[in-house]
Structures are given as C-alpha cells and as structure tokens.
Design goal:
CATH superfamily: Jelly Rolls
Number of domains: 1
Strand content: over 45%
Structural class: mainly beta
CATH architecture: Sandwich
CATH topology: Jelly Rolls
Number of helices: 0
Distance between the termini: 26 Å
C-alpha cells in the first residue's frame, strides 16, 4: 500500500466561527477503509496565517512537519515546529497547529489505530459534522 502526498486530492475544510483563518486542505490516504489493519495517516496543508483548530483524536498521533513552520499546541504546552520536526500527541489530548511562517505548512500525522475519530468543538465544513471519522465505512 502506498500513497504519494503530492498526488493526493486534498479537501478544503473550514470552521464557520472563523472561516478566514481556521482552514486547511486535508486527506486521509491510509486507514482501515483502504486496508490498513493497525495504523492510519492524515496529510494536511495549512497556508500562512491559517490554522487547524484544537481537537482531540481517539488514538495517539505522531506528527511529522514536512515543510514550513508553525506553532503547535498539545494540551497546555505550546511550541514552535519546523520542517523535519516530530511531535507526539497522546490520544484524547486537545491539540492544534497554526502556520506562523511565510510558506505552506505541510504535515503528515501517523496514528496508532486504523480507525480514528477526531472531535472538534464545532462542525467541520463542508461536512457539517463535529466528529470526523477516518477509516470507517462511508455512511449508507
């Protein structure tokens, strides 16, 4: 199983309470729905001045910053991250990341489970749901 990040179709998502800065492009190329048994991957890009709002994930995640720079929040901690950095996010700990640089922030997240529920304080648009599940079968 392979996934080329440069060839992924990214979905633009945003939050209605802050549509100008709470926005990013995202895809979930590897998860249970495509045959992974024990892990999942998210890939996302955030433009300068934009951010991924705080949320929780149902499994531990390791973030790898591919390009750009930003400020990551994990629980009560905040820190600068740059291309080449890794960060561990424990399951169910609120976390988010903002692009503080002048180029696109590109991040890959590796999860320790093949089905992940990400919970936000408000619905993610255009899906209209506050809990986004990757790896689950599509709704009937």
């Amino acid at each position: 199983m392979t996934a080329k990040t440069a060839e992924q179709e990214l979905v633009q998502v945003w939050w209605d309470s802050d549509p100008d800065s709470a926005r990013l492009r995202v895809t979930f190329p590897i998860n249970k729905a495509v045959g992974s048994e024990e892990s999942a991957v998210v890939y996302f890009e955030i433009e300068p001045g934009n951010r991924l709002p705080l949320h929780t994930d149902s499994a531990e995640e390791v973030l790898y910053v591919v390009a750009g720079e930003g400020e990551a929040t994990v629980g009560e901690e905040r820190g600068r991250v740059v291309a080449g950095d890794l960060a561990v996010v424990p399951s169910m700990v609120p976390h988010g990341i903002a692009n503080t640089g002048d180029e696109t922030l590109k991040v890959v997240g590796f999860f320790t489970a093949s089905e992940i529920a990400s919970t936000f304080d408000e619905p993610v648009q255009p899906m209209g749901v506050a809990v986004v599940t990757q790896g689950a079968p599509p709704p009937a």
